[in-house]
């Protein structure tokens, strides 16, 4: 489709969705780790129009896209406004549409462990788990809470061990894997609180 990234069948692509308000080095770290630990060909940053779980609207999409492009400089990382182009609001919709547009592409939904802890509050979260493999990357202080989350407990049998992480992109959903490693003690919320990123 015109205006959409090119991705031939067989590629292994990680999808890192979020408001990126603002993007920061933590996003870059988990992206690089996902490329390596899950054996991905590319990671797409899906800069969302807004987060349905947050009351306050984010900064302008153009500003967040520009900041993300300035921050992440990697040949296999693409910053995209594909959700705006698709007109989707929820992850389940986005994943379903991308799988239709890109048949044969092995998508992996990427998230921080903090997101897994609250994943059960997402719209149609079980549909996401049943549709696409999920790669979870550790964030400060969230590993235990994530491992004990409702999503982790319900899908305990679908969890791959970390040593099998490179099998995740071709695993049949439901399948998920939690990776631990170096972490950045920073978040978009904290950056906004300092006044360094004004809306």
TrEMBL record:
Residues of the Cytidyltransferase-like domain: 15-193
Pathway listed: Cofactor biosynthesis; NAD(+) biosynthesis; deamido-NAD(+) from nicotinate D-ribonucleotide: step 1/1
Catalytic class of the enzyme: transferase
E.C. no: 2.7.7.18
Keyword Nucleotidyltransferase: yes
Family: Belongs to the NadD family.
Protein name: Probable nicotinate-nucleotide adenylyltransferase
Source lineage: Bacteria, Pseudomonadati, Pseudomonadota, Alphaproteobacteria, Rhodobacterales
């Amino acid at each position: 489709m015109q205006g959409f990234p090119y991705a031939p069948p067989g590629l292994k692509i990680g999808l890192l969705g979020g408001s990126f308000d603002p993007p920061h080095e933590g996003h870059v770290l988990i992206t690089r780790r996902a490329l390596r630990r899950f054996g991905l060909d590319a990671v797409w940053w899906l800069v969302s129009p807004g987060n349905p779980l947050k009351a306050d609207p984010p900064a302008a999409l153009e500003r967040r896209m520009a900041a993300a492009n300035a921050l992440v400089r990697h040949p296999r990382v693409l910053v995209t406004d594909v959700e705006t182009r698709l007109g989707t609001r929820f992850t389940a919709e986005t994943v379903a549409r991308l799988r239709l547009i890109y048949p044969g592409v092995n998508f992996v939904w990427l998230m921080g462990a903090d997101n897994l802890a609250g994943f059960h509050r997402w719209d149609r979260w079980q549909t996401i788990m049943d549709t696409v493999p999920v790669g979870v990357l550790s964030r400060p202080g969230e590993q235990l809470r994530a491992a004990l989350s409702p999503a982790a407990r319900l899908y305990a049998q679908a969890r791959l061990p970390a040593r099998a992480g490179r099998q995740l992109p071709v695993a049949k959903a439901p399948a998920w894997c939690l990776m631990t490693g170096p972490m950045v003690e920073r978040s978009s919320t904290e950056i906004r609180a300092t006044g360094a990123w004004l809306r």
